[in-house]
Protein backbone atom coordinates (compact mmCIF):
# COMPACT_ATOMS: atom_id res chain seq x y z
CA UNK A 1 0.00 0.00 0.00
CA UNK A 2 2.92 2.35 0.62
CA UNK A 3 4.03 1.81 -2.97
CA UNK A 4 0.54 2.50 -4.28
CA UNK A 5 0.50 5.75 -2.36
CA UNK A 6 3.94 6.64 -3.76
CA UNK A 7 2.75 6.37 -7.33
CA UNK A 8 -0.59 8.03 -6.70
CA UNK A 9 1.27 11.13 -5.59
CA UNK A 10 2.90 11.24 -9.03
CA UNK A 11 0.01 10.63 -11.45
CA UNK A 12 1.72 12.41 -14.34
CA UNK A 13 5.11 10.75 -14.07
CA UNK A 14 4.27 7.09 -14.60
CA UNK A 15 6.78 6.90 -17.45
CA UNK A 16 9.73 7.77 -15.21
CA UNK A 17 8.83 6.44 -11.76
CA UNK A 18 10.54 3.11 -12.31
CA UNK A 19 14.24 3.06 -11.32
CA UNK A 20 16.62 3.43 -14.27
CA UNK A 21 19.65 1.27 -14.94
CA UNK A 22 22.14 1.84 -17.79
CA UNK A 23 21.90 -1.64 -19.33
CA UNK A 24 18.10 -1.67 -19.83
CA UNK A 25 15.61 0.65 -21.54
CA UNK A 26 13.14 1.12 -18.68
CA UNK A 27 10.97 3.35 -20.87
CA UNK A 28 9.88 0.25 -22.78
CA UNK A 29 8.74 -1.49 -19.60
CA UNK A 30 6.84 1.69 -18.69
CA UNK A 31 4.80 1.31 -21.89
CA UNK A 32 3.68 -2.30 -21.47
CA UNK A 33 0.34 -1.18 -20.01
CA UNK A 34 -0.42 1.22 -22.84
CA UNK A 35 -3.73 0.69 -24.66
CA UNK A 36 -5.02 -1.70 -21.99
CA UNK A 37 -8.56 -2.81 -22.93
CA UNK A 38 -8.87 -5.72 -20.50
CA UNK A 39 -7.26 -6.92 -17.30
CA UNK A 40 -5.01 -9.57 -18.86
CA UNK A 41 -1.79 -7.58 -19.32
CA UNK A 42 -1.76 -6.13 -15.81
CA UNK A 43 -2.69 -9.44 -14.18
CA UNK A 44 -0.18 -11.36 -16.30
CA UNK A 45 2.65 -9.02 -15.34
CA UNK A 46 1.77 -9.15 -11.63
CA UNK A 47 1.48 -12.93 -11.83
CA UNK A 48 4.83 -13.16 -13.60
CA UNK A 49 6.44 -11.20 -10.77
CA UNK A 50 4.88 -13.49 -8.17
CA UNK A 51 5.66 -16.77 -9.93
CA UNK A 52 9.21 -15.82 -10.89
CA UNK A 53 9.96 -14.77 -7.34
CA UNK A 54 8.50 -17.97 -5.90
CA UNK A 55 9.35 -20.75 -8.34
CA UNK A 56 11.95 -19.70 -10.89
CA UNK A 57 14.96 -21.81 -11.81
CA UNK A 58 17.81 -19.34 -11.29
CA UNK A 59 20.00 -20.98 -13.93
CA UNK A 60 17.59 -21.20 -16.83
CA UNK A 61 15.05 -18.53 -15.74
CA UNK A 62 12.28 -20.59 -17.34
CA UNK A 63 8.66 -20.19 -16.21
CA UNK A 64 5.65 -22.32 -17.17
CA UNK A 65 3.04 -19.98 -18.65
CA UNK A 66 0.15 -22.02 -17.24
CA UNK A 67 1.59 -21.35 -13.78
CA UNK A 68 1.35 -17.64 -14.53
CA UNK A 69 -2.24 -18.14 -15.65
CA UNK A 70 -3.10 -19.85 -12.36
CA UNK A 71 -1.59 -16.92 -10.49
CA UNK A 72 -3.57 -14.45 -12.65
CA UNK A 73 -6.83 -16.06 -11.58
CA UNK A 74 -5.71 -16.25 -7.95
CA UNK A 75 -5.01 -12.50 -7.99
CA UNK A 76 -8.39 -11.73 -9.57
CA UNK A 77 -10.38 -14.15 -7.38
CA UNK A 78 -10.80 -11.96 -4.29
CA UNK A 79 -11.92 -8.69 -5.95
CA UNK A 80 -14.28 -10.63 -8.23
CA UNK A 81 -15.80 -13.11 -5.78
CA UNK A 82 -16.04 -10.87 -2.72
CA UNK A 83 -16.77 -7.50 -4.30
CA UNK A 84 -17.93 -8.34 -7.82
CA UNK A 85 -15.67 -5.68 -9.30
CA UNK A 86 -16.01 -5.31 -13.05
CA UNK A 87 -12.91 -6.12 -15.08
CA UNK A 88 -14.43 -4.70 -18.27
CA UNK A 89 -17.30 -5.57 -20.59
CA UNK A 90 -15.32 -7.97 -22.79
CA UNK A 91 -13.05 -9.33 -20.07
CA UNK A 92 -13.41 -13.10 -19.53
CA UNK A 93 -11.68 -13.38 -16.13
CA UNK A 94 -14.93 -13.14 -14.18
CA UNK A 95 -16.66 -15.79 -16.29
CA UNK A 96 -13.75 -18.18 -15.82
CA UNK A 97 -13.72 -17.63 -12.05
CA UNK A 98 -17.49 -18.18 -11.87
CA UNK A 99 -16.88 -21.66 -13.31
CA UNK A 100 -14.36 -22.51 -10.59
CA UNK A 101 -15.51 -25.04 -8.00
CA UNK A 102 -13.95 -23.72 -4.81
CA UNK A 103 -15.33 -23.05 -1.34
CA UNK A 104 -13.25 -20.97 1.02
CA UNK A 105 -14.70 -22.83 3.99
CA UNK A 106 -15.98 -21.34 7.20
CA UNK A 107 -12.99 -21.68 9.50
CA UNK A 108 -10.26 -19.68 7.76
CA UNK A 109 -10.02 -16.25 6.20
CA UNK A 110 -9.69 -15.78 2.46
CA UNK A 111 -6.20 -14.37 3.02
CA UNK A 112 -5.06 -17.32 5.11
CA UNK A 113 -1.98 -18.98 3.58
CA UNK A 114 -3.64 -22.40 3.60
CA UNK A 115 -6.73 -21.02 1.85
CA UNK A 116 -4.62 -19.32 -0.80
CA UNK A 117 -2.68 -22.53 -1.40
CA UNK A 118 -5.93 -24.47 -1.81
CA UNK A 119 -7.23 -21.80 -4.19
CA UNK A 120 -4.21 -22.08 -6.47
CA UNK A 121 -4.41 -25.87 -6.40
CA UNK A 122 -8.12 -25.77 -7.30
CA UNK A 123 -7.41 -23.44 -10.23
CA UNK A 124 -4.59 -25.67 -11.45
CA UNK A 125 -6.69 -28.84 -11.15
CA UNK A 126 -9.62 -27.28 -13.03
CA UNK A 127 -7.55 -25.19 -15.44
CA UNK A 128 -8.77 -26.74 -18.68
CA UNK A 129 -12.37 -27.25 -17.56
CA UNK A 130 -12.91 -23.62 -16.56
CA UNK A 131 -11.34 -22.27 -19.75
CA UNK A 132 -8.03 -21.01 -18.39
CA UNK A 133 -6.03 -21.57 -21.62
CA UNK A 134 -8.13 -19.05 -23.57
CA UNK A 135 -6.93 -16.29 -21.25
CA UNK A 136 -3.35 -16.87 -22.39
CA UNK A 137 -4.03 -16.93 -26.12
CA UNK A 138 -2.59 -13.47 -26.71
CA UNK A 139 -1.33 -11.78 -23.54
CA UNK A 140 2.12 -13.47 -23.21
CA UNK A 141 2.88 -12.31 -26.76
CA UNK A 142 1.27 -8.87 -26.68
CA UNK A 143 2.98 -7.86 -23.45
CA UNK A 144 6.22 -7.92 -25.47
CA UNK A 145 4.88 -5.64 -28.24
CA UNK A 146 6.60 -2.45 -26.97
CA UNK A 147 9.98 -4.16 -27.35
CA UNK A 148 9.40 -4.71 -31.08
CA UNK A 149 7.13 -1.85 -32.14
CA UNK A 150 9.16 -1.03 -35.25
CA UNK A 151 9.16 -4.67 -36.42
CA UNK A 152 5.43 -5.19 -35.90
CA UNK A 153 4.10 -2.30 -37.97
CA UNK A 154 1.90 -3.57 -40.78
CA UNK A 155 1.87 -7.17 -39.53
CA UNK A 156 -1.69 -8.63 -39.65
CA UNK A 157 -3.08 -9.27 -36.18
CA UNK A 158 -3.40 -13.00 -36.82
CA UNK A 159 0.34 -13.26 -37.45
CA UNK A 160 1.59 -11.18 -34.56
CA UNK A 161 1.89 -13.97 -32.00
CA UNK A 162 4.23 -15.98 -34.21
CA UNK A 163 6.17 -12.89 -35.19
CA UNK A 164 6.61 -11.74 -31.57
CA UNK A 165 7.76 -15.20 -30.48
CA UNK A 166 10.34 -15.32 -33.28
CA UNK A 167 11.58 -11.80 -32.57
CA UNK A 168 11.90 -12.51 -28.84
CA UNK A 169 14.22 -15.42 -29.64
CA UNK A 170 16.19 -13.87 -32.49
CA UNK A 171 16.85 -10.58 -30.70
CA UNK A 172 17.05 -11.81 -27.12
CA UNK A 173 20.54 -10.36 -26.55
CA UNK A 174 20.20 -7.32 -28.80
CA UNK A 175 16.73 -5.99 -27.93
CA UNK A 176 16.65 -7.42 -24.41
CA UNK A 177 12.91 -8.15 -24.22
CA UNK A 178 11.49 -8.91 -20.81
CA UNK A 179 11.43 -12.59 -21.80
CA UNK A 180 11.53 -14.83 -24.85
CA UNK A 181 8.73 -17.14 -25.97
CA UNK A 182 8.55 -20.45 -27.74
CA UNK A 183 6.32 -20.49 -30.83
CA UNK A 184 3.68 -22.50 -28.97
CA UNK A 185 3.86 -20.19 -25.99
CA UNK A 186 4.05 -22.90 -23.33
CA UNK A 187 7.06 -21.48 -21.48
CA UNK A 188 8.89 -18.20 -21.26
CA UNK A 189 12.50 -17.46 -20.41
CA UNK A 190 13.17 -14.29 -18.48
CA UNK A 191 16.03 -12.18 -19.71
CA UNK A 192 18.72 -12.42 -17.01
CA UNK A 193 19.20 -8.65 -16.83
CA UNK A 194 15.46 -8.08 -16.45
CA UNK A 195 15.32 -10.84 -13.84
CA UNK A 196 18.04 -9.06 -11.88
CA UNK A 197 16.24 -5.73 -12.26
CA UNK A 198 12.90 -7.13 -11.09
CA UNK A 199 14.57 -8.86 -8.16
CA UNK A 200 16.56 -5.80 -7.06
CA UNK A 201 13.60 -3.43 -7.39
CA UNK A 202 10.83 -5.84 -6.41
CA UNK A 203 8.85 -3.60 -4.04
CA UNK A 204 8.90 -0.61 -6.38
CA UNK A 205 7.95 -2.59 -9.49
CA UNK A 206 5.19 -4.42 -7.63
CA UNK A 207 3.87 -1.10 -6.34
CA UNK A 208 3.98 0.36 -9.85
CA UNK A 209 2.02 -2.61 -11.24
CA UNK A 210 -0.47 -2.43 -8.37
CA UNK A 211 -0.99 1.26 -9.06
CA UNK A 212 -1.88 0.45 -12.68
CA UNK A 213 -4.20 -2.33 -11.47
CA UNK A 214 -5.93 0.03 -9.03
CA UNK A 215 -6.33 2.72 -11.67
CA UNK A 216 -7.67 0.19 -14.19
CA UNK A 217 -10.30 -1.11 -11.74
CA UNK A 218 -11.26 2.35 -10.55
CA UNK A 219 -11.94 3.40 -14.14
CA UNK A 220 -14.26 0.44 -14.64
CA UNK A 221 -15.87 0.74 -11.20
CA UNK A 222 -16.17 4.52 -10.79
CA UNK A 223 -18.76 4.38 -8.01
CA UNK A 224 -16.99 1.78 -5.87
CA UNK A 225 -15.06 3.25 -2.91
CA UNK A 226 -11.76 2.05 -1.46
CA UNK A 227 -10.63 0.01 -4.46
CA UNK A 228 -7.11 -0.61 -3.00
CA UNK A 229 -8.69 -2.33 0.02
CA UNK A 230 -10.54 -4.71 -2.28
CA UNK A 231 -7.55 -6.02 -4.25
CA UNK A 232 -6.36 -8.70 -1.85
CA UNK A 233 -7.65 -10.22 1.40
CA UNK A 234 -6.02 -9.43 4.74
CA UNK A 235 -4.13 -12.39 6.17
CA UNK A 236 -4.81 -11.59 9.83
CA UNK A 237 -7.58 -9.95 11.77
CA UNK A 238 -7.16 -6.57 13.39
CA UNK A 239 -8.17 -5.79 16.96
CA UNK A 240 -11.61 -4.40 17.69
CA UNK A 241 -10.51 -2.04 20.46
CA UNK A 242 -12.02 1.11 18.93
CA UNK A 243 -15.49 -0.30 18.10
CA UNK A 244 -15.55 -2.08 21.48
CA UNK A 245 -14.93 1.26 23.17
CA UNK A 246 -17.75 2.86 21.18
CA UNK A 247 -20.21 0.11 22.07
CA UNK A 248 -19.12 0.11 25.72
CA UNK A 249 -19.92 3.81 25.86
CA UNK A 250 -23.38 3.19 24.39
CA UNK A 251 -24.07 0.20 26.66
CA UNK A 252 -23.29 2.39 29.65
CA UNK A 253 -25.91 4.88 28.47
CA UNK A 254 -28.66 2.56 27.21
CA UNK A 255 -29.96 -0.95 27.76
CA UNK A 256 -29.25 -3.32 24.90
CA UNK A 257 -30.17 -6.97 24.54
CA UNK A 258 -28.27 -9.54 22.50
CA UNK A 259 -30.17 -9.97 19.22
CA UNK A 260 -29.61 -13.75 19.32
CA UNK A 261 -30.11 -14.77 22.95
CA UNK A 262 -32.22 -11.89 24.20
CA UNK A 263 -29.97 -11.53 27.25
CA UNK A 264 -29.14 -8.06 28.51
CA UNK A 265 -25.64 -6.92 27.60
CA UNK A 266 -23.26 -5.42 30.15
CA UNK A 267 -20.56 -2.84 29.34
CA UNK A 268 -17.80 -5.01 30.80
CA UNK A 269 -18.96 -8.37 29.47
CA UNK A 270 -19.73 -8.54 25.78
CA UNK A 271 -18.14 -9.51 22.48
CA UNK A 272 -18.54 -7.98 19.02
CA UNK A 273 -20.01 -10.33 16.43
CA UNK A 274 -19.44 -9.90 12.70
CA UNK A 275 -23.04 -10.33 11.52
CA UNK A 276 -21.72 -11.44 8.13
CA UNK A 277 -18.64 -13.51 9.14
CA UNK A 278 -15.27 -11.79 9.06
CA UNK A 279 -13.81 -14.72 7.14
CA UNK A 280 -16.14 -13.74 4.29
CA UNK A 281 -16.11 -9.93 4.35
CA UNK A 282 -12.51 -9.66 5.67
CA UNK A 283 -13.16 -6.30 7.30
CA UNK A 284 -14.22 -4.81 10.63
CA UNK A 285 -16.54 -2.11 9.31
CA UNK A 286 -18.81 -1.01 12.19
CA UNK A 287 -22.02 -1.43 10.19
CA UNK A 288 -21.41 -5.20 10.29
CA UNK A 289 -20.63 -5.39 14.04
CA UNK A 290 -23.13 -6.05 16.79
CA UNK A 291 -22.57 -6.67 20.54
CA UNK A 292 -23.48 -10.16 21.78
CA UNK A 293 -22.83 -12.29 24.83
CA UNK A 294 -19.49 -14.13 24.89
CA UNK A 295 -21.34 -17.46 24.76
CA UNK A 296 -23.25 -16.47 21.62
CA UNK A 297 -20.07 -15.24 19.93
CA UNK A 298 -18.34 -18.55 20.55
CA UNK A 299 -21.33 -20.58 19.34
CA UNK A 300 -22.00 -18.57 16.17
CA UNK A 301 -18.36 -18.61 15.08
CA UNK A 302 -18.22 -18.26 11.27
CA UNK A 303 -21.79 -19.20 10.47
CA UNK A 304 -24.18 -16.99 8.56
CA UNK A 305 -27.06 -16.07 10.87
CA UNK A 306 -30.59 -17.06 10.01
CA UNK A 307 -32.29 -14.28 8.05
CA UNK A 308 -34.90 -13.95 10.80
CA UNK A 309 -32.22 -12.05 12.75
CA UNK A 310 -31.82 -9.37 10.05
CA UNK A 311 -34.63 -7.14 11.35
CA UNK A 312 -33.32 -7.27 14.93
CA UNK A 313 -29.81 -6.51 13.66
CA UNK A 314 -30.97 -3.45 11.71
CA UNK A 315 -33.11 -2.25 14.63
CA UNK A 316 -30.10 -2.50 16.96
CA UNK A 317 -27.93 -0.60 14.51
CA UNK A 318 -30.59 2.08 14.24
CA UNK A 319 -30.82 2.30 18.01
CA UNK A 320 -27.06 2.50 18.49
CA UNK A 321 -26.70 5.21 15.83
CA UNK A 322 -29.33 7.35 17.52
CA UNK A 323 -27.73 6.95 20.95
CA UNK A 324 -24.27 7.51 19.51
CA UNK A 325 -25.39 10.71 17.79
CA UNK A 326 -26.66 12.11 21.10
CA UNK A 327 -23.63 10.90 23.06
CA UNK A 328 -20.59 12.12 21.10
CA UNK A 329 -19.30 15.33 19.55
CA UNK A 330 -20.12 16.32 15.99
CA UNK A 331 -16.56 15.57 14.91
CA UNK A 332 -16.52 12.10 16.43
CA UNK A 333 -19.96 11.31 14.99
CA UNK A 334 -18.78 12.14 11.47
CA UNK A 335 -15.54 10.19 11.89
CA UNK A 336 -17.06 6.99 13.27
CA UNK A 337 -20.02 6.88 10.89
CA UNK A 338 -18.05 7.42 7.67
CA UNK A 339 -18.00 3.65 6.86
CA UNK A 340 -21.80 3.61 7.05
CA UNK A 341 -22.02 6.44 4.53
CA UNK A 342 -19.51 4.88 2.15
CA UNK A 343 -20.70 1.27 2.21
CA UNK A 344 -24.44 1.77 2.70
CA UNK A 345 -24.55 4.76 0.34
CA UNK A 346 -26.38 7.01 2.79
CA UNK A 347 -26.18 10.63 3.88
CA UNK A 348 -25.82 11.59 7.53
CA UNK A 349 -29.47 12.59 7.55
CA UNK A 350 -30.66 9.31 5.98
CA UNK A 351 -28.48 7.36 8.41
CA UNK A 352 -30.85 8.35 11.21
CA UNK A 353 -34.01 7.63 9.22
CA UNK A 354 -35.27 4.17 10.11
CA UNK A 355 -36.79 3.37 6.70
CA UNK A 356 -33.73 4.61 4.78
CA UNK A 357 -31.37 2.62 6.98
CA UNK A 358 -33.47 -0.52 6.63
CA UNK A 359 -33.60 -0.25 2.84
CA UNK A 360 -29.86 0.38 2.60
CA UNK A 361 -29.05 -2.61 4.82
CA UNK A 362 -31.34 -4.92 2.88
CA UNK A 363 -29.67 -3.87 -0.38
CA UNK A 364 -26.24 -4.66 1.06
CA UNK A 365 -26.95 -7.75 3.14
CA UNK A 366 -29.05 -9.77 0.68
CA UNK A 367 -26.31 -10.21 -1.99
CA UNK A 368 -23.71 -10.83 0.72
CA UNK A 369 -25.78 -13.67 2.19
CA UNK A 370 -26.30 -15.19 -1.24
CA UNK A 371 -22.67 -14.95 -2.30
CA UNK A 372 -21.33 -16.28 1.01
CA UNK A 373 -23.49 -19.37 0.67
CA UNK A 374 -22.38 -19.86 -2.93
CA UNK A 375 -18.73 -20.03 -1.95
CA UNK A 376 -19.22 -22.45 0.93
CA UNK A 377 -20.29 -20.66 4.12
CA UNK A 378 -22.78 -22.46 6.31
CA UNK A 379 -25.99 -20.56 6.91
CA UNK A 380 -29.25 -20.36 8.84
CA UNK A 381 -27.55 -20.32 12.24
CA UNK A 382 -30.00 -20.06 15.12
CA UNK A 383 -29.07 -19.67 18.79
CA UNK A 384 -29.97 -22.79 20.77
CA UNK A 385 -30.24 -22.57 24.53
CA UNK A 386 -28.64 -25.52 26.23
The fraction of residues in strands falls at under 5%
Question: What is the CA-based Rg, rounded?
Answer: 25 Å
Give the averaged pLDDT, no decimals: 88
Q: What is the straight-line distance between the termini?
A: 46 Å
Order of helices and strands: HHHEHHHHHHEEHHHEHEHHHHH
Shape: elongated
- Overall structural class, as computed from helix and strand content, comes to mainly alpha
Biggest β-sheet description: 3 strands, antiparallel
How many strands? Answer: 5
Describe the structure.
By secondary structure, the chain is mainly alpha-helical. The chain folds into two domains: 2-230, no CATH class; 241-374, no CATH class. Helices cover 51% and strands 5% of the residues. The protein contains 18 helices and five strands. The protein has helices spanning 2-8, 26-30, 40-55, 65-83, 93-98, 113-125, 139-142, 149-152, 160-170, 192-200, 202-220, 241-253, 278-281, 294-300, 310-327, 330-344, 348-351, 354-374; strands at 62-64, 179-181, 187-190, 271-274, 289-292. A three-stranded antiparallel beta sheet has the order 1-3-2. Helix 3 (40-55) packs across helix 4 (65-83) and helix 15 packs across helix 18. The two termini are 46 Å apart. The relative contact order is 0.11. Mean pLDDT is 88; it is low at 1-16.
What labels describe this entry?
386 residues; mainly alpha; 2 domains; 5 strands; disordered N terminus
Secondary structure layout plus pairing:
Elements: H1 2-8, H2 26-30, H3 40-55, E1 62-64, H4 65-83, H5 93-98, H6 113-125, H7 139-142, H8 149-152, H9 160-170, E2 179-181, E3 187-190, H10 192-200, H11 202-220, H12 241-253, E4 271-274, H13 278-281, E5 289-292, H14 294-300, H15 310-327, H16 330-344, H17 348-351, H18 354-374
Antiparallel strand pairs: 1-3, 2-3, 4-5
Helix pairs in contact: 1-11, 3-4, 3-11, 4-6, 12-15, 15-18
